[in-house]
Amino acid sequence: VKEEGQQRHAHTRDSEDGTMKVRQNPSPIDHRAAALVASIPRSTSTPLPGQRAAGSSGSTPSALGYRQTMSPPPTRAMSARTAPASPPASVVAPAAHMQAAKAALTEEQIASMQKFVVDALAAKSSFGGSGSKYMILVNQLCSDNAVTITAWLRALKLCASQVTQDYPELLSVLFRFNMAADEQLTRAYVECVVDLVTAHSCHIAPCLRMLLSNLYPKLAQGTAALLATGPEPAYNLELSSRIATVVLNTLQRVLNLVPLSSIQLKTLLGEQFPPKRADATTLSFFLKHAIVISQIAPDLREPIFATAVNRLLQIDVDIKLDDEVEEEDDMLFAIELDAAAEAERKQQNADLAEKLDLMMDVLLEHIMTLVMNPATSASVFDMLLRMFHQYILSTHNEPHFL
Prior knowledge:
two-stranded antiparallel ribbon; 17 helices; mainly alpha; single chain
């Protein structure tokens, strides 16, 4: 092992600055991977601000990228011939010079990366399997460097018509995006996804699912330490509201470009609506922005209201009032509740009541706005009457929130 390590590493001294650097003797596999990325036409212009000249040493700090909990696609199935290579030098820059690098990225460099994407997709489609260039592209989109991902998304946007459902690894990475990422990265991602959805209807459902998942409030920093002091986590509502604005604008663009996407959105809203066990902030935050979606697409108003009423009924069923507890005790041979169980029941009722109150405040505020508008008052009244007959009257016992 020692002899092999000595053969693979040769220490040389730089003749210019006298600093020591390590040159690794590449294996035939490394030669193939390096040649693969080197085949991309490079710009001969001055390096980007913050980049090191070719042959110099030093590491590159990381920048904000995709969801922190997301890990790159598994590479165990990759053979030695498909070992990942380094990204083109035109898209690597230290975080301290991120803004300058973004401004300096030329159209020629993006065109070079576009050619690489076209070749990667074609190789994957022609030969099947993973494909060397294809896996390099997927790994670059899993980078933690916002500049790198932004550049590849700009190149991928130009090839949107070629990205079909035959590239599951690539699509899996694209539709796990977290809108809390860098602003420039988020903008590039939205433009790329909108073009993908417009080009191929098969991308509509995963795109809508990803957007709706970003309507959940984002946790604040240090939440883990706060969880021990209270049942509900701390949220960064300011950041969550900014993300929700981006999501709603993107949804509006998708609905305008692909009107039939509202059919899938109707189903996905019911699936993505927070469950009854979610905390009060999550339920009310999602409902608030779901109502905005009903304003963007009026056809979704009744399905959204019906989902909200169903969730209210599910929460309401779990509330047990004092008279109900006494009635159940008589039926169950007068079993007395001890003090601890009684305190726990009251706390659960208080939590459930808070969920009901917040959700009802959001609903009633919007209903009052619709009722005061002569253009919508009649249709809203008919909708509420249908929902009352369908959901409320058919419920066993009278719901508490009435």
